[in-house]
Amino acid sequence: MTGESGNKAVYDMGAENSRLASCVSPLLSWYGKNKRSLPWREDPSAYHVWLSEIMLQQTRVEAVLDYYRRFLEKLPSVEALAGCDEQTLLKLWEGLGYYSRVRNLQKAARIIMEQYEGNIPSDPEILLTLPGIGSYTAGAIASIAFGLPYAAVDGNVLRVSARLLADEEDIGNEALKKRRKAELETILPKDCPGSFNQALMDLGAMICIPNGAPKCGECPLASGCLAYLQERTAELPVKAKKAPRRVQERTVFVIRHCGKLLLKRRPPRGLLAGMYELPCAEKKLDRSEALSFVRELGFEPLFIEELPDSRHIFSHLEWRMCAYLVRTDELPEPELKTEEYRLESSVEIAGDIPIPSAFSAYKTWIHDT
Q: What was the pLDDT predicted at 93?
């Protein structure tokens, strides 16, 4: 809870901890009856917990389930992940986006193989040294897989606690995240820290939801929730607005030649590093300009058709795309402009070559034969 002393908020740590502590029993009781059935909970090994948490970053649970099963079928262990070739790895991740996550997953797996004999460390301080693992993921692995008393503070936990305590501090504030983690670790039940962490996550995902009105009538913590008692659930949590995303206009080309699709490899660093994409111009082109673009690539267009506009949102960037389907003269086989370009069949693309989800609006034409 907060008060004012000059311009600085003053926190009554004892009162906050007491209110948080009073939640443990009712929350665990609710979780026992209402927890979500998720595959990584059926066998919460460190590898399974780690993989699920990385997949779930900025992605809905429903979207992850098939990816999780498919990934484990192909790469069932840290050793298999460490030894996987990059193209197969990216294909398994195709559609999830944020490809740096899976690259970091593999980098960490290789470190675990080299330095820890293939055993994922239980110590959060060691986990934090591995690529792609932050405080939340380290806490989740330590508590869920190893039963250690470490909090896992994600957006769900921050939202639930902000409403419970009527805390008006920005939940994007790193100092708040650290303080909340410390507070929760004083009240974590020593016999089931992982269950408590997951209970908070489920409560935030199912009841104390981020968009729309929270389901306070179904919440086991409502009787002690200050935001509910003060009728302030719509105001909390407080979250500062992000800076507007940069918008980039692009023209996308689905160029088909002799049943094959033209792809271009992106640079080895930066956005979608090293992945194959549809050729693009970094501005909007009209039909005449589009035909010139195709000819400059070494192809002679026979047919051109406008495709639907689309957009794709990255963390700090938005692509607004118009697109053209182009079929080219079958003879002669063009000499591709640079080594960045390649012609691939739909079978090869479906089986081996990952296409970024940014182009998912054009999936029908990408896989057309």
A: 95
Q: Is 339 a catalytic residue?
A: no
The one catalytic residue in 4, 42, 53, 94 is: 53
pLDDT of 87 above 50:
yes
User: Where are the domain boundaries for CATH 3.90.79.10 in the chain?
Assistant: 246-366
| CATH architecture type of domain 2-229 | Orthogonal Bundle (1.10)
Mean pLDDT of the chain: 92
Q: Is the confidence at residue 356, as pLDDT, over 50? A: yes
The burial of 16, by beta-carbon neighbours within 10 Å (0-12 exposed, 13-18 middle, 19 or more buried), is given as: buried
What kind of fold does domain 246-366 have according to CATH? Nucleoside Triphosphate Pyrophosphohydrolase (3.90.79)
Quick one: angle between helices 193-206 and 24-34, nearest 10?
70
* Bridging pattern class, strands 317-328 and 341-345: unpaired
Nearest Cα neighbor of 172 from 159, 186, 185 is 159
